[in-house]
Amino acid sequence: MIKKLLIIAVISISGVVSLNAQGELNEQQKVFFRNERSYAILLNSDGIGVSYRAAKRIDYLNKSLIEIEAGTLKHPREYKLSNPYIQSAGSFVFGKLNTVIYLRGGLGHQHELFKKADLGGIAIRYFYSAGPVMAIYKPIYYKVLYPVSLSEVDIKEEKFNVSIALPQDIYSKASFTKGLNETKVLPGLFAKGGFNFEYSKEDKVIHAIEIGAQINAFPKKIPIMASSDNKTIYFSLFASYRFGMILDPLNPESNKLSNIFKRKKNY
After folding, report:
1. Is the pLDDT of residue 74 over 70?
2. What is the C-alpha separation between 252 and 99, in angstroms, rounded?
3. Which one, of 202, 209, 199, lies nearest residue 260 by Cα?
4. Architecture of 24-75+100-138+182-259 per CATH?
5. What number of other Cβ atoms are within 10 A of residue 178's Cβ?
6. What are the pLDDT digits (tens) for 90-123?
7. What is the pLDDT of residues 241-254, one digit of tens each?
8. So where are the chain's domains?
9. Which residues pair with 59 in a beta bridge?
10. How far is CA 6 from the centre of its chain?
């Protein structure tokens, strides 16, 4: 009788251990399946931008990042004005020579500092990335007023002229397409780093706020303004809203971008 009980106990314990081992394996698999695809709207101290990020799980707390970003690059002295004597005139930045956008792609790393206690909590991570950046800039044309008589003026579209010393000499900014054939490209390098606060209430959806700092460096000054203080290095702070999905290779339908803002149904 005792022998039978011992055999039953051994079999039962073996079954429990086997089930636990399978559960651990499934949890590990679940962790390694949790790659991410996300997008972000960026607000920088020197412009605005958008971002795409693919994150691949390395281990329980770490992910490798691939990022592609685009945005605007502004000079700190940019202030919008309008002609004080013509009410219908459009706005312009007095003294601006070029409109600048950047394109950049980088590789990076993300490490999780604090995991969510539950789906209503906040996960805190730090991240960094670096890579090449391209500054793409085109000249700005203005609609400049030239008096013909006391009651008549002629309007010509031309680049900013340093001899134009007053905003009342400008009617407005010309069309953005004016000067596209004069676009130039300047390559450089960038680096960024910050913190990610992920607060989504659903397991497969990403909603996060990111804050941090970044630097864009170029081999020569980008002529944004008609002044001597244009820069080669642009340091800025940023804040962004990031949204995306946890990718599930076993359920491709759940990886659709349209699922991000769907509310989870309660039954």
Report:
1. yes
2. 41
3. 202
4. Beta Barrel (2.40)
5. 18
6. 889 999 999 999 999 999 999 999 988 766 689 9
7. 999 988 876 666 65
8. 24-75+100-138+182-259
9. none
10. 63
Q: What is the DSSP string of the chain?
A: -HHHHHHHHHHHHHHHHHHHHHHHHHHHHHHHH-EEEEEEEEEETTEEEEEEEEEEE-SSSEEEEEEEEEEE---TT--EEE-TT-TTPPEEETTB-EEEEEEEEEEEEEEEEE--SSTTS-EEEEEEEEEEEEEEEEE-EEEEEEESSSS-EEEEEEE--TT--SGGGEEEE--TTTTGGG-EEEEEEEEEEEEEEE--SSTTEEEEEEEEEEEEE-SS----BSSTT--SEEEEEEEEEEEEEEE-TT-GGGG-GGGTTPPPP--
Q: Is the torsion defined by CA of 85, 87, 88, 93 positive or negative?
A: positive
Residue 184: alpha-carbon gap to chain centroid: 23
Q: Is the pTM of this model over 0.85?
A: no
The pair of three-digit structure tokens given for residue 134, joined into one six-digit string: 């391209």
Token pair recorded at residue 4: 């039978």
| Token pair belonging to 173 | 């900014």
